[in-house]
Amino acid sequence: MLFTMLYVCFNLLGTALLFKIVKVGPGSAPGGIFFVPLVLLIEDIVAELYGYKISRALLWYVLSSSLIFSVLSLVVVHLPSPEYWHLDTAYHTVFDPLLRGSIALFLAISVGRFFNIYALTKMKILVHG
Q: Whole-prediction pTM value?
C-alpha cells in the first residue's frame, strides 16, 4: 500500500510540474524530472518483490490517475470564476497544456515502463531469482 501511494503521488507530482522549468547549474530542466528516479525505483522494487502482474496493475493505476487528474483539473480551471478573482489567467497558463502533456506521458510511460517491468521480471526468471 505504501509503494502504491508513493508511486501515484510521485507520478502526479511529475505530471503537475511538467511545465515548470527550473534552473539546474548552467542549464534548465522540467520540474517533474526530479521525481522520475523515485518513480522508477519504486517501480523496480514492486516488480522485483511482487512480480509482473502486480507491477503492471500499479502502472495502470498511475496512468489512469494521471489522466483523471489532468481532465478534472482542466474542467475545474475552465469553470467560471468570480469577478474579483485575478489569478484565472495564471491557472489557464499552467493547467491548459496539462492534458496534452499527460497524453504524451501516457504514451511514453506505456512503452518505456511496461518494457522495463517486463525486462526486469524476465531477467529475474532467467537468473532464477
A: 0.72
